[in-house]
Amino acid sequence: DADATIFDKILAGDIPSDKVYEDDLCYAFRDINPVAPTHVLLIPKVRSGLTQLRHASPDQAALLGHLMSKVGAVAAAAGLGDAGYRLVVNDGADACQTVFHLHLHIIGGRELAWPPG
């Protein structure tokens, strides 16, 4: 598939990943270019036109809710405890989105600076 993203290739098993969590609807793996000691990406298993959060439709609300409901479990599986983590969604070029398959960044493992950017 010429339109396949790197995440589609990871889901297909064509590219290896360091899996942190998986269920029927989503997959989480460690980022290969982490911005913090712990940096995990959480993606829906089916892209189905969901390339950016701004393009989400009402019929995708259940999938988006599922992703959000799994963030805590993914963070725990990645070893992020009570100290906390940051959840980031980059949406579009100005936000530095480089893979157009919706994904959530779960970042932690150290005190994170604020404001970002």
TrEMBL record:
<dbReference type="InterPro" id="IPR001310">
    <property type="entry name" value="Histidine_triad_HIT"/>
</dbReference>
<feature type="domain" description="HIT">
    <location>
        <begin position="6"/>
        <end position="117"/>
    </location>
</feature>
<dbReference type="InterPro" id="IPR036265">
    <property type="entry name" value="HIT-like_sf"/>
</dbReference>
<dbReference type="InterPro" id="IPR011146">
    <property type="entry name" value="HIT-like"/>
</dbReference>
<dbReference type="InterPro" id="IPR019808">
    <property type="entry name" value="Histidine_triad_CS"/>
</dbReference>
<dbReference type="GO" id="GO:0003824">
    <property type="term" value="F:catalytic activity"/>
</dbReference>
<protein>
    <recommendedName>
        <fullName>HIT domain-containing protein</fullName>
    </recommendedName>
</protein>
<feature type="short sequence motif" description="Histidine triad motif">
    <location>
        <begin position="101"/>
        <end position="105"/>
    </location>
</feature>
<feature type="active site" description="Tele-AMP-histidine intermediate">
    <location>
        <position position="103"/>
    </location>
</feature>
<dbReference type="Pfam" id="PF01230">
    <property type="entry name" value="HIT"/>
</dbReference>
